[in-house]
Fold:
Amino acid sequence: MMTGKTPILILKEGTEREKGREAQYNNIRAAMAIADAVRSTMGPKGMDKMLVDSMGDVIITNDGVTILKEIDVEHPAAKMIVEIAKSQDEECGDGTTTAVVLAGELLKHAQSLVEQDIHPTVIAEGYRLASRKAAEVLESVALDVTPEDRDMLKRIAETSMTGKVAGANKELLADIAYRAVTAVAEEKDGKIDVDLDNIKVEKKQGGAVDDTELVEGIILDKERVHTDMPVTVKDAKILLLNVALEIKKTEVDAQIRITDPDQLQKFLDQEEQMIKDMVTKIKNSGANVVICQKGIDDLAQHYLAKEGIFAVRRVKKSDMEKLSKATGASILSELDEIKPEDLGEAGTVEEKRIGEDKMTFITDCKKAKAVSILVRGGTEHVVDEIERGLHDALSVIAVTLEDGKMITGGGSAAIEISMAVRDYAATVGGREQLAIEKFADAIEIVPRALATNAGIDPIDILIELRKAHSEGKKHHGVNVYDGNSADMKELNVLEPLRVGKQAVKSATEVAIMILRIDDVIAAKGTSGGGGGPGAGGGPGSMGGGMEDMY
Structure:
């Protein structure tokens, strides 16, 4: 900026600035690049991605949020798109790819409106109105589900795993997911509440996916501390300790002066007696299993083994809390006053060898409010991907139980929204009408992508779907197996209502936020990202050479 002949420096030297339409286009291109990266993973015929990090570790997945978490995204607008996937995963556990692809499509259609000199705030208002209408449409097409609809809930879980590695064993995994979620579900004020933290998923390479099992209790990736301890304890009385079975060290530096060998022996005897007293207190409490969050001294291990008490040490705090819920035991920090009601109960506590490792199984817990799933698979990559599929299955059953609502998949809800939003656009008028119509076009990316990934002509299938929906067949979607439209309710392609609503809402919010940016100021030393100031990445680049991904 110049005033007379004296330059006035507002920004630090080296700071780069990009404003106006060019800044908007670069942000839109970056968002579209992220959406393109995961679009091919959508649907039953979606493909997987292989991600190799700087350490050479390999991840093979088609889970949208996992892909976006693992790739090193630099562009600030692209990072906002990645955030959608993360929030969708936290809120619903599924629908991450849909949310990201929809955001990219909304921005793509917004770009054509910006080129027609329609102000971004007008587009934003149109998108907001369309998003509200979409939520109403989803509510109107939603179907009721009750906790007793076991088959329906399992079908929802199977739909979430279709197209993933877990899809090959989806019946078994859906059954495990249903039993796990219903075991930990609690009714509060007439509403069902599911805390998925109460379901412990333990992975062990080896065996086959068919060997995956639900344990009504807790699995600890730990072995007993002493070989003389019993391998199996029936009718276990479990003591949970948050105190070390060791001699306490003084908190200040202390010296003990010993002038006589007898004094040394007395000192050692006293230490031994203190350990003995600890074990006696445990024995007298009636406990025959001790799970300790901290350490257990070698001498304490010896005395516990002599008393026939099964002990495990250094158990994670989260596992201790799950054990408390599963067995009904209290977590104690003092050994002095152990009451009978502080002890938990389990039918069996057993050390088993799984693969190369030994694990502790605490099973047959009465009315366990915490359960475990042991995931097996031939390789580490398979086990990891099965766990991701299982996470989706557990999440969708949980949110369906909480909301009591589901919608049909296969792009059927998207077509219903598209048609309703187009009709709604005519009633709005003004320039917002154009944005609402573009929203209707954008949401059709869901059936379009499903068809494209399955090798079906997307235009033909869209025409067929629009015809079916105009005739009142509101549950018709893309049947990727025969290339036609079909009733998704009959085919049991179902998903929770919350997944669809959250995807539309978060995609719209982030598209609006990116649209409203008209100035990007990149400070010196930042790496701006794809096409942004100082990026050097070229339009639509994801910064870290991620263009090679597709």
The two ends are 43 Å apart (CA to CA). Residues 527-550 have pLDDT under 50 and may be disordered. DSSP finds 16 helices and 23 strands in the chain. Residues 114 and 480 are 35 Å apart (CA to CA).
